[in-house]
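This part of the workshop introduces the protein records we will be handling. Getting from the letters to the tokens is the skill we practise here. The record below serves as our worked example for the rest of this section.

…
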Amino acid sequence: MNVKPYVSDEAKKSQVSRMFNRIAPWYDFLNHFLSLGIDHSWRKQAVELLGKGPFPAILDLATGTADLALTVHRHFPESQITGVDIAAGMLDLGRKKIKRSNLSHQIVLLEGDSENLRFADEQFDAVTVAFGVRNFENLDRGLAEACRVLRPDGRFLVLEFSRPTHWLFAFFFNGYFQYVLPLIGRFTSKDPGAYQYLYTSVQAFPSGEAFMAVLEKNGFRPIHCKTLTFGICTAYLATR
């Protein structure tokens, strides 16, 4: 899978970083507006799959503006959370949210590449990622890195868009993602390509059992796969 945001020979990783830096000022608003606020519930339900913990050290990959990191903190307030992302513009917004919540001592955001992590082996008790693995340039490498930094029996949580299976819901979902989102993106973020990419990348990404098999190939033991809102997105839980 090598779907890119823009028609260019530039590497996918560079394009993804540029895309998110461009749309960063509108990212949170559009996420919540275009999902009708359901994205908050998706993150909450996904984090609940992790169980009771404890998870002293948690890594949040492709953390963006830190929405998942903040959700994780609400469930595990004693955990030290580190977020990593390649888009500096998204991290700046995330740090502001964390500072407003007086959580700078517990949630630290770092600019970095999820496919080439600067952490030691087996450093984290849990690794999470929401709507980020789809953007990896090399999916296998990104997952292998997540496995490397996770301690034995540590938990890996992935929340990602998927394709609805019911034909009627899929019809409306595909129309909304393919035509409505890029149109709204054109008049808000000024980057309709970013929201066209959302549709094409979801279509190309393995979901359900197919993604569970990819997890297993990269060193994880899949535990559970939970579809949310008629399959618009899916939460995956695995362990090392």
